[in-house]
Structure formats: C-alpha cells, structure tokens
Write a structure and sequence with these properties.
- This protein has 227 residues and is α+β, with helices and mostly antiparallel strands.
- It folds into 2 domains: 8-100, no CATH class; 119-219.
- The chain is built from 7 helices and 6 strands; from the N terminus they run E-E-E-E-H-E-E-H-H-H-H-H-H.
- It has helices at 56-65, 91-137, 143-153, 165-168, 172-186, 190-195, 200-226; strands spanning 9-11, 31-33, 36-38, 48-52, 70-76, 81-90.
- It has a 4-stranded mixed beta sheet with strand order 1-5-6-4.
- The radius of gyration is 34 Å and the shape is elongated.
- InterPro entries: DUF2293.
C-alpha cells in the first residue's frame, strides 16, 4: 500500500531493482512511473541531494528554499507501512537552509548568554540583599561570613533555603535557617559526629548549645554597640 501522495515520492527499495528506462541498477533510490521503476536521472531528479530525517527545522526550510523537492520513503515490513526517511532538495536550497539554521542557532546562543548574565546579576543582587538581612538579624556576624552564607544559601538550582519561597521573601525563619546551617557545619563538631556514625538528630542535639552560643554572640554584639 502506497503512502498518501502529498507531492513527489521517491522510494528506497528493499529488493534489487533496475531502471526500466536506462537499465541501470541496483537503484538506491527510485521513482515509480506507471508502476515501473525509474532512476533519479531518468525521472529528472538526479540533481537533487538527500537530506535524512532528523532535523525538522532544516528539512522544513530546505523544502521552502527548493523549487523542486521529493519525500523519500521506505517500506517497514514489520509495521507493514511506509516510513519517511528524508527528502530530496536542491543543493543550493539546502545550503541556504543551513545558513538560516546557523543564524538561528547564533541568535539562540546570544540570547542564552544575555539570559545567563541577567540571572547572574539578579542572583548577585539577591545574595547581597540576603547578606544585609543576615547583618540586620545578627549584627555581630562578620561581613565576609554573612556574604558567604548568603551566596551558599541562594545558589541557583541548589534547592537550599535561599531558593525557597520563604527565602526569596527574606523571612526571618529562612534567613535564620541559613545562618544556623552555616554555624552547625563550620563552628561545631557536627560534621565529625556524623562521620563517626552518630545519628543526625542526636548529633544536632549535642551541638545545639554550641550553635546557640554563636548565635547569641552575634546578636548581643549588635545590642552592645547600640547601647
């Protein structure tokens, strides 16, 4: 059964076929005229080049650019149907289509660069804002430490508290969570406890007082300077 005719069709034969007109063969591609196989030269399609399926944009543009084109199909015995393999188009048309696709690819690359720069600027501004909020809540926290906590907590794609809705809103709970996490890992033996096999909840219980001491010191430092 032939596929629906939507233009010129060219076949990739499954069996060895020779051209009924010039007798050349076996033919890698053929056209059926009145049920008889013709080679591309005899069918006046020999000047076209084959573009395999796979790149939808390139295929579409090649056909748009080509005055003459044909769809190449092959019969799939297992599925009992013809399947599209690609198209035949004029070589110059293919070259023009490739240039159009390359131009689009360059435009997309430039847009990605612009988007990346914009996101980086947004992330930098948010990290500075997050660090300022840490400084407001914990004025005794060293400025460099506050910046490091903010950068870590707000890293894009990290899933950390700074990327959560509460973090983006700079709620006190989210900012405090980021600070506590930093203190837990850098100012207490928490990591060593975990490595020694202490369960996480027990490790947190053991270092809770140490965390509270650091946080109290960072808070009271600001109160003392205010007085």
């Amino acid at each position: 059964m032939l596929p629906p005719l939507t233009g010129l069709l060219v076949f990739q034969p499954l069996k060895r076929r020779n051209c009924a007109e010039c007798q050349r063969g076996p033919l890698p591609l053929l056209v059926l005229e009145d049920g008889a196989p013709r080679c591309l030269d005899c069918a006046d399609l020999g000047h076209l080049v084959f573009l395999p399926s796979g790149d939808t944009a390139l295929t579409r543009r090649s056909r748009e650019e080509s005055t003459l084109s044909a769809v190449v199909v092959r019969f799939n015995r297992r599925k009992s149907r013809y399947e599209r393999q690609g198209v035949l188009v004029e070589e110059a048309a293919l070259a023009r289509a490739e240039q159009r696709c390359l131009a689009d690819a360059e435009a997309r690359r430039r847009r990605r660069v612009r988007d990346a720069r914009r996101r980086a600027a947004q992330d930098e501004l948010f990290a500075l804002t997050f660090a300022a909020e840490i400084g407001r809540l914990y004025p005794g926290c060293p400025a460099g430490r506050a910046r490091a906590i903010a950068a870590h907590a707000s890293e894009r794609g990290s899933g950390r508290v700074g990327r959560s809705a509460a973090g983006r809103a700079l709620t006190e709970g989210a900012v405090t969570s980021a600070v506590v996490a930093s203190v837990r890992h850098l100012d207490t033996p928490y990591d060593r406890l975990l490595m020694s096999g202490v369960p996480r909840h027990e490790a947190r219980r053991r270092i809770a007082a140490a965390v509270e001491t650091v946080l109290r010191g960072w808070t009271e430092a600001g109160l003392g300077s205010a007085g």
